[in-house]
Amino acid sequence: MSGTWINLIFDITICLSLLIGAFFLVSGSIGILRFPDVYTRLHAATKSSTLGVAGIMIGAFLFHYVEHDIVSGKLLLGIFFVLLTAPVSGHMISRAAYRAGVPLWEKSVKDEYAEVLKEEQKRQAPDS
């Protein structure tokens, strides 16, 4: 560290980014173990992994930029694709689980999606 204030601020920002990313990854892992059903576990896995991996990649990007004067396009693309694909994949997995008949937790909120699916099936059914 060369001792300038801006380098100190960048170092603190990098450390905070890495710590926040690690916190989200650890809390997501705990959520996967502790939550009661598939849907809440998927929520913990996708939300926390998205924020955790993005935080760590942002910290790595800032480190490479500040310390080595490297703008890493791979890290920027990695951040972009993690932010884009992780929530979509979690949504699709939970939708497939719901349609396969995996039950919700009995203390969860009202299942409004079942009502929407029933109405949709009624509209698509031919009148007899």
TrEMBL record:
Top-rank taxon, per record: Bacteria
NCBIfam families according to UniProt: CPA3_mnhG_phaG, PRK12674.1-2
Alphabetical list of InterPro entries matching this protein: PhaG_MnhG_YufB
Organism: Halobacillus trueperi
Primary location group: membrane
Family to which this protein belongs: Belongs to the CPA3 antiporters (TC 2.A.63) subunit G family.
UniProt-recorded Gene Ontology molecular function terms: sodium:proton antiporter activity
Transmembrane segments: 6-33, 45-65, 71-89
Protein name: Na+/H+ antiporter subunit G
Keyword set, alphabetical order: Antiport, Membrane, Transmembrane, Transmembrane helix, Transport
UniProt keyword Transmembrane present: yes
Topology in membrane: Multi-pass membrane protein
Cell compartments where the protein resides: Membrane
Cellular component per GO, a single term: membrane
